[in-house]
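Appendix B, Record 12. Input sequence as logged:
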Amino acid sequence: MRVGLYPGSFDPITVGHIDIIERAFTIVDHLVIAIGKNATKTPLFELDKRLAMIEEEVGPKAAARDVRLEVISFDTLLVDVARQYKAGLIIRGLRSASDFEYETQMTAMNRTMAPEIETIFLPASPEVGFVSSTLVRQIVGMGGVVDPFVPASVLKKINELK
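Logged structural output:
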């Protein structure tokens, strides 16, 4: 069984995340989506809501692809989480060259600590390559429209915040 770990803040989960997740379903049998706790960021949604939104949005898609899905949170080293879940792959989405530079540094650190775990990069599809959770949060904070950037179920939760 090929196990992949897809980490991120997912605050909120966007159409860009969904793009990477659906493509990850084609290369793994078991996908662990891991929400990192970041004490330095003020979240739009609390951790339990993010876990629930991801489950709601991608759970049925995983089932349809016959992929086992787990959605978890973590506040430890990513490689320790990967080992805990027996993930041989860390999956990272790339939107731009700056993402690549940052991610290659992280990959080198992770590979040094855990050479048995491989990191793979999935470039974002062109139609969603510009979407980020950070930009969505900024648009929401300024009262803008985020309909094209998040799934309908997440948009509903965003509208409930207003």
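The radius of gyration is 15 Å.
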